[in-house]
Amino acid sequence: MCISVRQELTKRRAWLNDKGDAEARAEAQLREVSARPAGDDTAHALSGIAASLASFLGVRGELAVLDSRDSGWRDVQRSLLCWRLRIAVERALYARGALSQRSLGLEHTARVVALSACIAVVLRRVDDEAWLVRQLSAMQTDSRMVRPRWWTNHSVPSFVARLFDLGVIDNVKPPYRAILEHGNDERQLVRALGAACDYHVAHMAIGHPSHEFADGPFGLIPFEILAILALRQRVGRPSVPVSHQLLGARLTSTLAYATPTAVDDPLLAALTAEANRSVDLARDA
How far is CA 198 from CA 53, 205, 234, in A? Predict the structure, then answer.
């Protein structure tokens, strides 16, 4: 394992330790927010709680997976569902015109949508994958949500979009473009996947605002790489022998045994119910 990955493991363990009981804190925040009148400001607060909880569960989950603990994949799934709630609330607020003074459309959300879709692919959560791909498609086609030049400057979401036949390949820059161009050349594809793993390692520092893989669980587990392997497996393409410090047997074997499981999460259910009090998630998201 290279020094940078070891360092990031250490940083994420320290970050997790510093967070303490984030679930209890989220419950307390939810009780406080629930006392407010329903509306856009309440929905924004709930979106923030969902994002904080998603990142906490994601970091705890990815560390547990790498430690070969059974709780890891459950936390990763809970993180995915919290990210989905965050996306749904932001999408609903956008539909209501409530994001116009706070952000440039949904550009801050598009990266999370793309990477969450990769998790859904790997864990075979078909309904979540379909919903996330619909969100990604809407963001690709509506320039009011995400400016076209944003896609040009953010190759990871553009690359993930192309995995689902969305967007244009011209927006995908190295190292990801080579993956799309060499799908039928195993030697070139292995080299391109290795370069993408190197890029991932260089852009996963937790807390770094411009790193695509800073949030949990996107950092220590390269879901965008695993999603490529899973999608190839789905359509009967040959497996690709990728050797990299980010990928080990416990990760690649997930593609063989991962099955969607029901996640009993009372906190997420309470967050969702409270969000629906302020915005209509089913209609607007």
Answer: 28, 13, 25
Q: Cα–Cα distance between 117 and 108 in angstroms, integer?
A: 16
Total Cβ atoms within 10 A of residue 183: 15
Q: Answer whether 81's CB lies under 8 Å from 270's CB.
A: no
- Determine the pLDDT at residue 12: 96
User: What is the C-alpha to C-alpha distance for residues 145 and 154, in angstroms, rounded to an integer?
Assistant: 15
In 3-state terms, what secondary structure has residue 24?
helix
Q: What angle do CA 233, 178, 219 make, to 5 degrees?
A: 70
What's the whole-model pTM score? 0.92
Q: Which residues are paired to 60 by β-bridges?
A: none
Buried b (16+ CB within 10 A) or exposed e, 262-285: eeebebbeebbebbbebbebeeeb
Quick one: average pLDDT of 221-249?
A: 87
**Cα(154)–Cα(151) distance, integer angstroms:** 5
Indicate the residue type of 263. Answer: V
Residue 170 DSSP class: G
Furthest CA-CA distance within the chain? 59
Q: Report pLDDT digits (tens) over 108-118.
A: 899 999 999 99
Nearest-angstrom CA–CA distance, 125 and 121: 6
How many domains is the chain partitioned into structurally? 1
Residue 102: pLDDT above 70? no
Read off the tokens for 233. Answer: 């497996």
Which residues form the domain of 196? Answer: 3-284
CA 16 to chain centre: 18
Secondary structure of residue 152 in the 3-state scheme: helix
- Torsion region of 207: left, alpha or beta (phi above 0 gives left; psi -120 to 50 gives alpha): left
